[in-house]
Amino acid sequence: xxxxxxxxAGTLLALTLSTGLAAAQSKITIAVGGGACLCxxxxxxxxxxxxxxxxxxxxxxxxxxxxxDALKAVLGGSADVVSGYFDHCVNLAxxxxxxxxxxxxxxxxxxxxxxxxxxxxxxxxxxxLAGKKVGVSASGxxxxxxxxxxxxxxxxxxxxxxxxxxxxxxxxxxxMEQGQIxxxxxxxxSVTVLQGSHKDLKILSDTxxxxxxxAVFGGEYPGGALYSTTAWVSGHExxxxxxxxxxxxxxxxxxxxxxxxxMAKMPEEIVGKNKDLYLAALKNTIPMFSxxxxxxxxxxxxxxxxxxxxxxxxxxxxxxxxxxxxxKFVDQVKKTTGNxx
Length: 341
Hints:
By secondary structure, the protein is of the alpha/beta class. The protein contains 17 helices and ten strands. Helix 11 packs across helix 17. The chain is globular, with a radius of gyration of 22 Å.
């Protein structure tokens, strides 16, 4: 009898523990602005490494065509958090939409303006894009913002260039190779894939390195980050901290492992068939990933300056850019996990 009661007690304890564990795992949906893009690798890799689980989160990644679509998912309530470019937080502040980034994983945007191999002969500079068809991931995405900024910077009216959404992965590469568009704003691994087939690929602007980013923007310019509405961040501090812990652990893992190690952890459908090109693109991208996870206040100011130049609405809005991000969750990581620098 005692033996039977002991077994029953053991079974009940196991059930209680498993139920408690399930309850402890908060369900979070992250909308990603193009999961195949290396700029978003930390978000995907965190899932592959089990870092979300370790942080007590049951995370679902929803892969969308571009950052603007990911943003719509959060504003529409079908996702909790965006894995996308910080510049949306600044742009939406002008429309009185309060968004806040809480961990930054890209030090640079990694955006590249590339000429289609079919149109190399006729396009030699940004000025030559007047009246042309230029691809972006999606209308209203960071690729679109970047294009408009470059056009305006070079004295062109952005309205004079046809902007076409072509995604970020294979669809963008195909559109470029077939000459459906004259040029495109792309990200790796797509740029390196194109270079693999077209050694003379013409690049008009490149922000994959610190040197090039400074040349384009005059300062560092943060790219990918996790962000959500300010209301969601303030109402879900436990989950936000857990997400930050997971991303910080992933960034630490990235900077302590080889490109080969990282590639081996990524989903096969993202790596694709040509592993050599993916590996080359990954090696180019690793320096872009943050080691601190923090927003550089000067970088945030640079984003505001760029948007103010390109958008009268942003320029007139009197945006307090310090409200569009917080470093407090990254600062807290060191106290809880020791991962933050």
